[in-house]
Amino acid sequence: MLDPTTLEDYLAAAEEAARRAAVVLHEWRKRFQVREKSPADLVTDADVASQTLIKAYLQERFPGHGFLGEEGAEIDPVTRELKPLPADAPPTWIVDPIDGTANYVHDVPFYCISIGLWLQGDLRVGVVYDPRMNEMFSAAQGLGAKLNGEPIHVSPITTLRESMLSTGFPADPTRSMKNVNWWRKFTERTQSLRRTGSTALNMAYVAAGRFDAYWAFDNFVWDVAGGVVLVREAGGQITLVDGGAYDPFRYDIIATNGAIHAECLEVLKDPPENL
């Protein structure tokens, strides 16, 4: 059993780390340098500064904890695989210092700081902080999900036709085309679709009932680590796109309000033409 008091302490630390990182992002706006990790996949000085601050703060608070951040993570250049954390790994903070870097670079106010905690073989704490809207989405296992301290829940929508879905596209244009076909397929079956540029905010919005579902095929664990606990604690459902048990170290995900999950899976199991 996880001690609620301990989880609350971890959650408060993640919130504070996110707030401090937001100050860094604000200070770096308009003066950062941009480079490409790969074509169209951007990283800035602000990403690095944000991650450095978060890591220092959390490791000072919890010296025995591990840390996995997007910047500097060891990804196989050929397979694009990231070695999963074992179930018996020490508590490990998983951080995206700016989720939605392209938005940040272009001063589009839709980016965030995402922090999750891997503990006893699963994600147990999640924080997604949108500094431009001053919205702190936070959750810990068994303690519910909140937005700025107030409880949030997934939407009551019960049919795909009534729903608003969001998705994400990878920077690589070849891999991106796969989801273009799925976008077309969901367009025919939903009320509306959105592409925001931030996985973590997409998942936070599912938790808050703003979006009814989110799907994607190309996420790393730091993209989802803050949002997984949010969706679960808000009453939602998360699986792989084939309906299998969710693994945050796999690339694909479908996160929904639960009520339309089966309907989403039906669409995803029927590949569109030209996939």
UniProtKB/TrEMBL annotation:
GO terms for molecular function: inositol monophosphate 1-phosphatase activity; metal ion binding. The lineage of its organism: Bacteria, Pseudomonadati, Planctomycetota, Planctomycetia, Gemmatales. Belongs to the inositol monophosphatase superfamily. InterPro entries: IMPase, Inositol_monoP_metal-BS, Inositol_monophosphatase-like, Inositol_monophosphatase_CS. It comes from the Bacteria. This is Inositol-1-monophosphatase. Its EC number is 3.1.3.25. Its cofactor is Mg(2+). Keywords: Hydrolase, Magnesium, Metal-binding. Mg(2+) binds at residues 70, 96, 98-99, 223. PROSITE patterns: IMP_1 (PS00629), IMP_2 (PS00630). It comes from Tuwongella immobilis. GO terms for biological process: inositol metabolic process; phosphatidylinositol phosphate biosynthetic process; signal transduction. It catalyses: a myo-inositol phosphate + H2O = myo-inositol + phosphate.
